[in-house]
Amino acid sequence: MRLVLTVILFCLMWSNAYALNPPTPKAPVDYCQIAGVTFASCDPTARRFRSVMIAVPGWNGTCDDSFGHGDNNLLNVMRSVNFFDIDCFDYDSHNTPLKTSAQQLLARLVALQNDGYRQVAFVTHSTGGVLVLELLQSEMMSGNGTALRTGPDQSILFKKDGIKLVGVFAFAIPINGVRDHICLAAGLGNVVGATGEVVPTICGNSAYLQGLKDEFVKFNGLYAAVPANQRPALGFDFSLNIYQGQGEDWVVNPIDTNDPWVPASAAPPHLANTLEGHTHIVADNQIEFPTFSGEVMQDRSLLTFSLNPRTDEYFKPTLPATITLDQVQRAIVGGVVDFASIKNLFAAAAPQVSDFVVMLLNARFTRAPDFDEFAVSSFDGLLVQRKSTQDDAAFVAYGDDLLADVDRGFVAPNQSDPLSFGGQSKAAARELAQTLTDLFTTARSLVEQDSSLAVNLRDDGGSLDAFDARLGRVVPRLLSTPDIATQNAAVNLITLISNQSSPKALEASGLVGALAQFSVQNYATMTMERKATLGDAFKALSARSPSLSDQVVTQFNQEVPWLGRQAPLWAPLLNDQQMRVFIERAQPQDQSDTTLKFLSGVGANGGRYFVSADTAKLATDKLGQFQQLVVVPISRMPRSGINGLPDNSMTLLNPE
Fold first, then answer.
1. Last residue of one domain, picked from the residues 509, 536, 566
2. Alpha-carbon dihedral of residues 44, 47, 52, 57, nearest 10 degrees?
3. How many folded domains does the chain comprise?
4. pTM of this prediction?
């Protein structure tokens, strides 16, 4: 009895103190001026995605103090995985009825929809949660709760082409009222005119709260009468997440998610017992950040929003190049990668990732000089992240998708066009070359070690040969980049592909022709080192099959201008050692016109070009082996010298 009396006395003292010194309504603060947070309804540059999280503070709270400050603001913590925008709704929690505030919140939603938003979720504290429930009830039903709002009367919150509600995250919501000592204080406060309009309506036995819950009960009855296959079209499905003290909170009463008022369309409600005090769930003026883990909210938000970046607004050629544009573009890339990095969400993100990669490589848009490098590095990081999860199937699938996207979007960089990929940054193409190398070496190795993974090569029909052939078609495009480091990386990757891929894949890739085209276009300005690297790539290709060898030699025999004369491509391209390799590979049983022409040309030019006397003799001896097997028609034998040059013509020196 003594304990009971003590508690009653404490409550009376607290209530009297509250009545005599109630919380003073806070002076209005322009929420758009809050430091460290930029809201979607305030600044157009804060609109980077088409999903928005709106915070709604509780009684006597504001956007400035209810959710923490700066980087520690709950909304900033939640979107450290950044694929949605944030906003906050301040309202008069003292003297304006919640029904009126709900209509003001609806007006904000209309404005955000007009700004391009297509998804919304709410994070609320205390009375802010009741305000949102008031809004939902009014937007779900019409005719004083006698019918669901459908068809032309359907709310923008539930339309597919509206600003669709996807989630509510309610902290310490007093839907079952505030505790008796709060209401006692509120009653005393009313006597002196201190508590205003709202607090008396959220006492546990208030007619307002009971009426609100009754309306949801009506909704549940109407919703249950709709055939299950017709409910999705109503759009009433959303995620309801409640974070409640459930006994530890001295302000609001506990909640049971089985209560009949809980919206039946919320699938299914999630209730977390926070085991914290009412104000410490979010923040107050004494603490700088929420003590309730923002990461929990972050995880729940991942399961709520879809990925919908505003690429059509910020990736256009008509935009002026500004620091702000660069910041927004990087934020969007970061959001796409962040979303796709979540293992369980990667499949949902795949179409947007694919479209973004193709857009990046193929579209023309204004951006900073180093943006392309940043973007390629970001998507390469996603490739690394997929590998680190030790989910080999997911890595192979993403690698195959990424290669298909590069194939669709990538053309040779044009350094003279600043709007094209790599147009302002040689490093971007280098980064892409490294990404393709990582992709080939890792994905291919995984499939070779476990053939069952080949099914994940969906873009290539489950075929490793098709995967290799596609890569063989893509890599030569890097050769057109006016950057020596990128060209070297491409040639090295071509050599790697040639050594590891099947002859069938190499034939399908067209690598021999692409490499020869690059050689013909650039042989006159190449360094000796570059020529040696190219020669090694041709060696790797020719070693895979007689057909590929014949293709290589055919390309070597084509004529090119060289020091005022016409000469075969092998003359300025191959060194003496490389020529010997091709001579030794020539097999009499595989003899062809192209091989005979190559051997006779090398044999007739000892001491010219890079042909040593020993190499010329080796070619002549090999040619003799051919002639022992067949009678070579005169028409198939080249004239002495190269292209009719007499044997005593002057020795031609390489210009390098």
1. 509
2. -40
3. 3
4. 0.78
